[in-house]
Write a structure and sequence with these properties.
Structural class: alpha/beta
CATH architecture of the largest domain: 3-Layer(aba) Sandwich
Radius of gyration: 23 Å
Protein name: Glutamate 5-kinase
Largest sheet: 9 strands, mixed
CATH topology of the largest domain: Carbamate kinase
Shape: globular
GO molecular function, one term: glutamate 5-kinase activity
Number of helices: 15
Binding site for substrate: 59, 141, 153
EC number: 2.7.2.11
Oligomer: single chain
Number of domains: 2
Number of strands: 18
CATH class of the largest domain: Alpha Beta
Bound molecules: adenosine-5'-diphosphate, the ligand N[C@@H](CCC(=O)OP(=O)(O)O)C(=O)O
CATH superfamily of the largest domain: Acetylglutamate kinase-like
Pfam family, one: AA_kinase
């Protein structure tokens, strides 16, 4: 049931990864135990030194809280209180292990379902990475209650991987990787090196039944991997208790299970955007249309002629060439309809003086833009 059951394989190429670390790796008898965290922190520091970026999703707040006050309370509300008691220690714990500055980010799934909050969270995370800081994310357990359990960080990590446009999701846990059945219950369970597609049958066979501190077992890890795969992101499951396994990651070797990406990342995102219902229309001039089509540029306020509809920041809108009424594509707006009306035809440098604030220089960022059929081909050419 350890890493030696798994042979070494290459990790896919990556520049930005989300690393999820479960409570099972951090909880000790007296709160958080650095024993396994040290190697993981070493991997993170090394990744930044290699010019890569890592976003950490870390569980462990409940375990840290219990070490401070333990009145034996079980159930949801006591757990939420424990998470609140332990969260600051969890961040302090990671800061002690790492050379880079860490930043606390608490998110809930609801934050990521709401397009505006999604964009705000993404902008903050991008800025932290630009500053070469390490975002340490946990679920905002005080407000996030998924059914009757604390929300699970495996699925949150998959959502974060899409949010930050990661190339890879790394899930560190207390077992060598995925087995064909729950290995602690079924002695005939076999290690699975590679998963091409996460099927319901695989999830059912994997089993939940985590330890006392973990939340979801392999079931939630596979659900997370399936979500990441759909977004075009591969997932690696490995044993974070084995320092050699963790060190090998820095050499792009994986001893564990690799779940392949189902689709090309950009294509997956564009697919989503293409089918999202439009909330309004941004009409652009020919100069802007050419910049979008031939240079793969972002849409700047200077090229916007007028706006139809009452949409909010983060909503999908259609982009139409004013003169020919030609639909060019679809994008997520950085500004609300009324704000775009005020900055239309202005230079990007003027956004702040007109609105009194600024989210960025573009009305629609190139990463949030998909052109229709023929225009897309021009853009990709
Ligand atoms: N098919 C499976 N393969 C491997 N582990 C499994 C499987 N099914 C259930 N598990 C259990 O999942 C546990 C890891 O999940 P969990 O305890 O939630 O850890 P974490 O705190 O890292 O999220 C393993 O220790 C193992 O007991
Ligand atoms: N947010 C909770 C963890 C929830 C969770 O998903 O735990 P785990 O299965 O150990 O990753 C905490 O910090 O304790």
């Amino acid at each position: 049931m350890n890493a030696s059951d798994f042979t070494s394989q290459s990790l896919p190429d990556w520049r930005r990864a989300v690393l999820k670390v479960g409570s099972s790796l951090l909880a000790g008898d007296a709160g958080l135990d650095p024993n396994h965290a040290r190697a993981l922190a070493g991997f993170i520091d090394a990744a930044f030194e290699q010019g890569r970026e890592v976003v950490l999703v870390s569980s462990g707040a409940v375990a840290a809280g219990r070490a401070r006050i333990d009145d034996g309370g079980s159930g949801l509300v006591p757990k939420q209180a424990m998470a609140a008691l332990g969260q600051a220690s969890l961040i302090g714990f990671w800061q002690q292990q790492l050379r880079r500055p860490v930043a606390q980010v608490l998110l809930s799934h609801d934050d990521l379902r709401n397009r505006r909050r999604y964009l705000n969270a993404r902008a903050t995370l991008r800025e932290l990475l630009r500053l070469r800081a390490l975002p340490v994310i946990n679920e905002n357990d005080t407000v996030a209650v998924d059914e009757l359990k604390l929300g699970d960080n495996d699925n949150l990590a998959a959502a974060v991987a899409s949010l930050v446009d990661a190339d890879l999701l790394l899930i560190a846990t207390d077992i060598g990787g995925l087995y064909s059945a729950h290995p602690r219950l079924d002695p005939s369970a076999r290690p699975i090196q590679r998963v091409e597609r996460v099927t319901d049958a695989l999830i059912d066979a994997a089993g939940g039944g985590a330890g006392t501190l973990g939340t979801g077992g392999m079931r939630t890890k596979l659900e997370a991997a399936a979500k990441a795969a759909t977004a075009g992101i591969a997932t690696a499951l490995f044993c974070g208790r084995d320092p050699a396994v963790v060190a090998a990651l820095s050499r792009d070797r994986l001893h564990g299970t690799l779940v392949e990406a189902a689709d090309d990342r950009l294509r997956a995102r564009k697919q989503w955007l293409r089918h999202a219902p439009g909330s309004g229309v941004v009409f652009v001039d020919r100069g802007a249309a050419d910049a979008l089509r031939t240079r793969g540029a972002s849409l700047l306020p200077g090229g916007v002629v007028r706006v139809v509809g009452d949409f909010r920041r983060g909503d999908p809108v259609d982009i139409v060439l004013e003169s020919d009424e030609l639909v060019l594509g679809r994008g997520l707006v950085q500004y609300a309809a009324d704000e775009i009306r005020r900055i239309a035809r202005r230079r990007s440098q003027d956004i702040e003086s007109v609105l009194g604030f600024r989210y960025g220089e573009s009305v629609i960022h190139r990463d949030d833009l998909v052109l229709t059929g023929a225009h897309e081909k021009e853009r990709e050419a």
